[in-house]
Write a structure and sequence with these properties.
magnesium, NADP, four-stranded mixed β-sheet, DXP_reductoisomerase_N, Rossmann fold, globular, 17 helices, Rna Polymerase Sigma Factor, Chain: A, EC 1.1.1.267, alpha/beta, 1-deoxy-D-xylulose-5-phosphate reductoisomerase activity, single chain
């Protein structure tokens, strides 16, 4: 029989949307060492094994399963467990978990545009956001940041690069900031040319040299689109111009990003390539707790190197800058086109170089002057995805 003791006093209550993904499972790892943080709600897509173990380990009282195809299996499993909590299903389940009354912080670790609406709903309810879903700010940065200011909530970055910037900025004032120096590993195809890229397979692209991530983010890293999306995210998180964000390829992935101040000081945050560090920092901000991530040994790390990104071979980075500078809904168009193209590639319906070809076609087709309201963004998302699919072979 499933049983959960009562909630403890003096704890921070959090919920996670996307608990069975890469960031979600690493958040659970952090919670194992954080006794003053209580998991009160969580969603999974279809991974019922993670759902079961999470309920048993963390006594989570509110859960959601978003894949309706596994609803019957989920109901049978939860009934067999004697689960005494509340269960939600489908897209409405994401919003339910994001807006739980008892949750103070919502970890948005779901990938893609699916995270936008529940994040907005959470902010409307006054929840602080531990943001791992970069697509939320890429597609609707102005809407989300304006709403966060209106509601007086914090958006705490979980991406390793944005967490590094966030931490480094504590060394000075925003008025003293000159540039953000955003680091990139370069992905698995650093140094390769377009002839090589024309033969890249899904299996090749999914082998990242430094980080263990979900499939979509790993492909984005290989095309440098992940860095382009992070440029847009940084613009909204830190209120800077695109001209003041520079990308540095740093193959060792030890320096997670840097900031340059007006006195020419450059402040960097270093650490092992381990997402538990930025997750833990976001959940405990402004405090630091004993480490979950492993200690960085600088003697073993050895030399740290930097290169300019190859913008001719990897077109996605400039596409992101151009979409950001264009304004309107163009970053939403970029994001939706990329999501759909990556999905088509992972399903073996297009080749590797077709990813950026499709994105470029979508950026040329859709009107940048459309006002970026939530309704317009969601409508553009549907139209862009349909157009992207129409360009796939077979």
């Amino acid at each position: 029989m499933w049983f959960c003791p009562g909630l403890e006093c003096n704890v921070k209550n959090i919920s996670i949307i996307g608990a069975s993904g890469s960031i979600g499972t690493q958040t659970l790892e952090v919670l194992r060492s954080e006794k003053e943080i209580k998991l009160v709600g969580a969603s999974v897509h279809s991974n019922l094994m993670v759902l079961r173990s999470m309920i048993e380990e963390f006594c989570v009282m509110n859960v959601a399963v978003t894949d309706l195809k596994v609803r019957d299996d989920a109901e049978l499993m939860l009934s067999t467990m004697g689960y005494g909590g509340t269960v939600h299903y489908g897209a409405e389940g994401l919003e339910a978990i994001a807006t739980l009354d008892e949750a103070q912080v919502v970890v948005t670790s779901i990938v893609g545009m699916a995270g936008l609406t529940p994040t907005i709903k959470a902010i409307e309810k006054g929840k602080d956001i531990a943001l791992a879903n970069k697509e939320t700010l890429v597609a609707a940065g102005g809407l989300v940041t304006d709403l966060a200011r209106e509601k007086g909530v914090m958006i705490l970055p979980v991406d390793s690069e944005h967490s590094a910037i966030f931490q480094s900025l504590r060394a000075g004032n925003h008025s003293e900031l000159r540039k953000i120096l955003l680091t990139a590993s370069g992905g698995p195809f650093r140094g390769k040319d377009r002839q090589f890229l024309s033969k890249v397979t899904k299996e090749m692209a999914l082998k990242h040299p430094n980080w263990a991530m979900g499939a979509k983010i790993t492909i984005d890293s290989s095309t440098l689109m992940n860095k382009g999306l992070e440029v847009i995210e940084a613009k909204w998180l830190f209120d800077v111009d695109y001209d003041d964000i520079e990308v540095y390829v740093h193959p060792e992935s030890i320096i997670h990003s840097m900031v340059e101040f007006c006195d020419n000081s450059i402040i960097a945050q270093l650490g092992t390539p381990d997402m538990t560090l930025p997750i833990q920092y976001a959940l405990n901000y402004p405090d630091r707790h004993e480490a979950v991530a492993g200690r960085l040994d600088l003697f073993k790390a050895g030399r740290l190197t930097f290169e300019k990104p190859d913008r001719e071979t990897f077109e996605a980075l400039d596409m992101a800058y151009e979409a950001g500078r264009a304004g309107g809904i163009m970053t939403a168009v970029l994001n939706s086109a990329n999501e759909e193209a990556v999905d088509l590639f992972l399903k073996d319906r297009i080749g590797y170089l077709d990813i950026t070809r499709i994105i470029g076609e979508c950026l040329r087709r859709f009107d940048q002057r459309i006002t970026p309201t939530l309704g317009n963004i969601l409508e553009a998302d549907r139209e862009v995805r349909a157009y992207a699919r129409s360009m796939a072979k077979g």
